[in-house]
Task: inverse folding
């Protein structure tokens, strides 16, 4: 079942078109990752899907009563706003204490209940944002570079959590990520964006597409090799031992 | 003879009415960094007063009209190469200046400008009290009704959108509430000191609060205390009442700030 379908869309941001000829869809239970260089319109696409930006051409169709959970890149809270983690989880829909506790446990941060939001570390904030997104029982979970600013270990365990969430809740996941090895291992489908959709498909397909190589250049060779190493078990290609063990996320 | 015949009682009722609405709204002004917006709305309202007198409509109506006009033009002009604080500064002081010029054209009416600039709380009538309390109730009902959505939109507009909340609508509700508070507070503290009624109670309450709701409640309490304390002091010291109310709030703010420096104060 299709949750969101975008057909031939143009999306403008302060006048100039950021995205053109966009065709996009995401199905129930699917993990889709959006890749692209800075300024390629990744966040613009996500913000269009949550409804923060309108289309200036084309059409967007969402499944009726679609519940979206959104985890932004980062959350800046003004220090003048006192806010406990507990209170934050009840925004905007009030949840009871048991729900709040179990959501925090599910996101892997059970001890933060009474803490102030402004006192949390970057990793803790992302986990709390995830817990809040899960409380809305989303059909579609949207993550906009949710591990930006986390160390490698932090982001690996964050993505592991996402994978578990998908298995448990069966929700679709749409994410923007720069961590190519994670993306390649965890996604069902990858979309390469650079003002338009350059290429899309299964990770292996996309990785071998010339458009993808043109975008990500030689940097991705190691990632590519790692990906093949894990999923094709072809041991002929170059292995990147330094990244071994990270890709299980 | 009823107790409303006593001008001090009337002044207290009007002041408390303003504090009840201004303090919780002021929390949003602080959280959203709208302090200058509040100031601009207040300053622009002197133009509203002039227009109301010229066209012989109610002061409340004139002030609401200019406040909304100003909010509208700022929304139109923002994002066209001017920083928000520049725009607000231009609008606030232009409207204040135009208002003062416009008042001088009003030959037929004798206008006590000082009463609008610094308030004249000791001269409030029963009608004034009714207007203040109606306005305050309207603002409180609006805030109560939209509380959760307002908070979410304040936190992060995208989080709000994803939850089906329109941040622009919440912004409009705050703009409207601000216009109402300014319109009813002119008589009490005057256009130059309204921003103080919004900001000082909220800033004073912040260190005691761990949730937004507690901060709003405490700010309300502090606002009411400033009004009563200011009235009492101005009566005893024979000082202008509006500025004394604000000074009283400032005293509380300074007191709290000094207390926070003490070593046993819990860090939040």
Result:
């Amino acid at each position: 079942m299709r949750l969101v379908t975008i057909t031939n869309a143009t999306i403008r941001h302060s006048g100039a078109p950021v995205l053109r000829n966009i065709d996009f869809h995401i199905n129930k239970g699917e993990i889709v990752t959006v890749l692209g260089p800075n300024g390629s319109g990744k966040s613009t696409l996500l913000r269009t899907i949550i409804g923060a930006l309108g289309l200036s051409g084309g059409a967007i169709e969402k499944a009726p009563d679609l519940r979206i959970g959104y985890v932004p890149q980062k959350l800046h809270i003004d220090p003048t706003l006192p806010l406990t983690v507990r209170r934050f989880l009840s925004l905007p829909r009030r949840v009871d204490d048991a729900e709040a506790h179990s959501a925090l446990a599910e996101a892997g941060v059970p001890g933060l209940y009474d803490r102030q939001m402004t006192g949390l570390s970057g990793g803790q904030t992302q986990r709390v944002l995830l817990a809040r997104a899960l409380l809305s029982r989303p059909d579609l979970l949207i993550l906009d570079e949710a591990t930006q600013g986390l160390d490698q270990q932090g982001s690996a365990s964050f993505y592991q959590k996402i994978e578990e969430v998908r298995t448990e809740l069966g929700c679709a996941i749409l994410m923007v990520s720069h961590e190519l090895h994670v993306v390649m291992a965890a996604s069902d489908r990858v979309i390469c964006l650079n003002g338009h959709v350059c290429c899309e498909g299964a990770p292996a397909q996309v990785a071998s597409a010339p458009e993808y190589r043109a975008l990500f250049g030689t940097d991705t060779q190691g990632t590519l090799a790692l990906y093949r190493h894990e999923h094709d078990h072809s041991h002929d290609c170059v292995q990147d031992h330094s990244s071994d063990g990270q890709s299980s996320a | 003879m009823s107790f409303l015949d006593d001008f001090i009682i009337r002044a207290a009722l009007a002041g408390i009415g303003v504090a009840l609405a201004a303090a919780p709204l002021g929390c949003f002004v602080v959280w959203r960094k709208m302090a200058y917006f509040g100031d601009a709305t207040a300053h622009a309202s002197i133009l509203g007063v002039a227009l109301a007198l010229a066209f012989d409509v109610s002061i409340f109506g004139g002030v609401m009209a200019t406040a909304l006009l100003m909010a509208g033009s700022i929304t139109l002009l923002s994002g066209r190469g001017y920083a928000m604080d520049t725009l607000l500064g231009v609008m606030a002081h232009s409207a204040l200046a135009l208002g003062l010029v416009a008042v001088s054209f009003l030959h037929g009416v004798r206008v006590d400008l000082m009463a609008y600039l610094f308030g004249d709380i000791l001269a409030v009538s029963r009608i004034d009290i009714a207007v203040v309390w109606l306005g305050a109730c309207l603002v409180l009902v609006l805030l109560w009704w939209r509380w959760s959505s307002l908070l979410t939109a304040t936190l992060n507009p995208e989080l709000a959108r994803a939850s089906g909340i329109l941040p622009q609508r919440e912004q409009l509700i705050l703009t409207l509430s601000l216009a109402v508070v300014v319109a009813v507070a002119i008589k009490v503290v005057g256009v130059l000191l309204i921003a103080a009624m919004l900001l000082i109670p909220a800033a004073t309450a912040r260190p005691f609060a761990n949730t937004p709701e507690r901060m709003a409640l405490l700010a309300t309490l502090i606002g009411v205390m400033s009004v009563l304390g200011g009235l009492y002091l101005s009566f005893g010291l024979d000082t202008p009442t509006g500025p004394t109310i604000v000074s009283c709030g400032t005293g509380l703010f300074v007191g709290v700030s000094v207390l926070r420096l003490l070593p046993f104060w819990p860090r939040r």
Notes: The mean pLDDT of chain B is 88. Chain B has one domain: 3-192. Residues 234 and 241 of chain B are 5 Å apart (CA to CA).
